[in-house]
Amino acid sequence: ALIAIALYLEFYYLGYLRSYDENKRKQKNVSKSRRSAFFIEMRPFLRGKRLRLILIFPVLLVAQAFWSASMGPDDGDASGSNLLLPLAIIAPSVMVLQLTFALEGNYFDGLWTRPVSIERLLLRKYYTAAPLAVGSFLFLLPTYFLFDTNLFILVSSMLFSIGFANLFMLTYCFRTKAMDIFASGFMNTQGTDFSASSFAIAFTVMIGPMLMVSFLPPVVYGIVLSVLGLTGIVLHKPAIAWIARRYEANRYRHFERYRNK
């Protein structure tokens, strides 16, 4: 019941996130969910078939982590009750943020003329991704009560996702190409970048925690991820401001990349 209440409060809060309305001189809190910044960011994932398929992977990971936890660490068929928990919590926001500015790349020349700064756009994406990690955490929280998984691992993985992984993934704005959400996904590499640095980022934020939870004691693992996550949460505004300044300094190169899908 408490988890259900927490999920309700999370979605209620999301309906009041700030969004930009160019017809108003003064920005106000939006009182309707369909106009909030979170639902504006998530709307393409509901409209485009290709993007809906991207969200299937995190859902399957959460289900797999729940099943693995139910098997218990002593079952030979299970991969460990705690192994998949970090990946399942981190994956949803990573899958969304890997497309940072890929959709906006279709109309970035026009967007540049609007009084919406790059920093504000990145902050909106950061605040949109954070509830995805919280939601995954809440869905997996019953494993602690039902199957005795490690609560510290759950909490630290959530903090790591919000504070560190999400910030790291925002640097994909330097690499993504423009992406047509209605195009077929078959043999389609729009929006993607296969550089070594892109793979390194994805490996660090997704596979890294899984490796650490496999070799480090749970307490040490939890402390490391919690420190990284809390540091990122505290410093996320100056970090995003730095990313925005670097992006703006090379904006014409980025715009040219958007034109060459």
Characterise this structure.
This protein is mainly α. The protein contains eleven helices and no strands. It has helices at residues 2-14, 37-47, 49-71, 85-97, 108-111, 118-140, 142-147, 151-169, 196-215, 218-249, 251-259. Helix 1 packs antiparallel against helix 6, helix 4 runs parallel beside helix 8 (151-169) and helix 6 runs antiparallel to helix 10 (218-249). It is globular, with a radius of gyration of 19 Å.
Could you give the distance between the termini? 47 Å
Spans with pLDDT under 50 lasting ≥5 residues?
19-23, 27-34
Which structural class fits the helix and strand makeup? Answer: mainly alpha
Order of helices and strands: HHHHHHHHHHH
What do the pLDDT scores average to? 79
User: Could you say which overall geometry the principal axes of the C-alpha atoms support?
Assistant: globular
What's the story with the biggest beta sheet?
none
Strand content: under 5%
* DSSP E strands, number: 0
Please compute the radius of gyration using only Cα atoms: 19 Å
Helix run count: 11
Residue share in helix: 55-70%
